[in-house]
């Protein structure tokens, strides 16, 4: 049977939500808690919004939300199933919303790490600074590059998982590879389903940023880091709960970031 390339879950947003359910909207609640804790205004830009669940939660919490993603399929799903925010297509590494400005930018679930190169990360942070009001916030959560780069190669045996949705069982086989030269965590995932469809092979990668490296990029682009810690967060174990106090260490497998746009101008572009 011919194998096709693509991304099964981003091509099927309904399947994505079935595979990664978030019935308590933990990620959205975590983001809203930090926005409130650090005094962000009501206008929020959610970058890499995916299916729109978190953006819709922030909208329901009283925020004026614009949500952006590169995937037109995800955006179509979001508009139908998670109405409220204004949904727009945009590239994280070079977005421009014209004269519109925001009190906060939210970037969840490692979306920032799709900026693979220094130039792309420069573009992301320059765009964030341009679109934020003075004193505006950047809130993000992502994988911690120090956790992966400081460890041995992931296990050679691929991880296997399966789940059933609407009568169809989906099975995935996932292999990870640390590309240290490029500072990328590369993933190859194969999907099969018992509905007779062709297998799907996915190739994804995330930039592995070290905490101090991330601080440097933010400083260069005119941001003051208010918090940079490993937990608790929406994808840590144990997970964040209301009232939890942000930690101080940054050596776990996730990084949580709060930065404020400084009154000073950005210093210079980082080295490419």
UniProtKB/TrEMBL annotation:
This protein's UniProt keywords: Methyltransferase, S-adenosyl-L-methionine, Transferase
A GO MF term: methyltransferase activity
Alphabetical list of InterPro entries matching this protein: Methyltransf_25, SAM-dependent_MTases_sf
Gene3D superfamilies in the cross-refs: CAC2371-like domains, Vaccinia Virus protein VP39
GO biological process terms on file: methylation
Domain Methyltransferase, first and last residues per copy: 44-136
Name by which UniProt lists this protein: Class I SAM-dependent DNA methyltransferase
């Amino acid at each position: 049977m011919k194998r096709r390339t693509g991304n099964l879950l981003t091509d099927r947003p309904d399947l994505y939500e079935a595979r990664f359910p978030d019935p308590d909207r933990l990620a959205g609640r975590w983001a809203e808690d930090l926005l409130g804790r650090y005094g962000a205004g009501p206008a929020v830009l959610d970058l890499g919004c995916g299916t729109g669940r978190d953006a819709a939660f922030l909208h329901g919490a009283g925020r004026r939300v614009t949500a952006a993603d590169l995937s037109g399929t995800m955006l179509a799903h979001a508009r139908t199933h998670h109405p409220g925010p204004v949904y727009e297509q945009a590239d994280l590494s070079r977005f421009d919303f014209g004269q519109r400005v925001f009190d906060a930018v939210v970037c969840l679930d490692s979306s920032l790490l799709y900026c693979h190169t220094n130039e792309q990360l420069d573009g992301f942070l320059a765009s964030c600074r341009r679109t934020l009001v003075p004193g505006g916030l950047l809130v993000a959560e992502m994988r911690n590059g120090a956790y992966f780069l400081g460890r041995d190669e992931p296990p050679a045996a691929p991880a296997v998982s399966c789940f059933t949705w609407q009568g169809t069982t989906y099975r995935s086989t996932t292999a990870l590879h640390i590309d240290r030269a490029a500072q990328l965590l590369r993933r190859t995932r194969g999907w099969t389903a018992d509905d007779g469809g062709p297998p799907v092979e996915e190739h994804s990668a995330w930039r592995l940023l070290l905490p101090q490296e991330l601080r440097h990029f933010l400083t260069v682009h005119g941001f003051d880091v208010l918090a940079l810690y490993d937990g608790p967060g929406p994808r840590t174990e144990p997970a964040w709960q209301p009232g939890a106090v942000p930690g101080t260490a940054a050596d776990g497998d996730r990084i949580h970031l709060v930065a404020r746009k400084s009154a000073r101008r950005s210093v210079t572009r980082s080295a490419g």
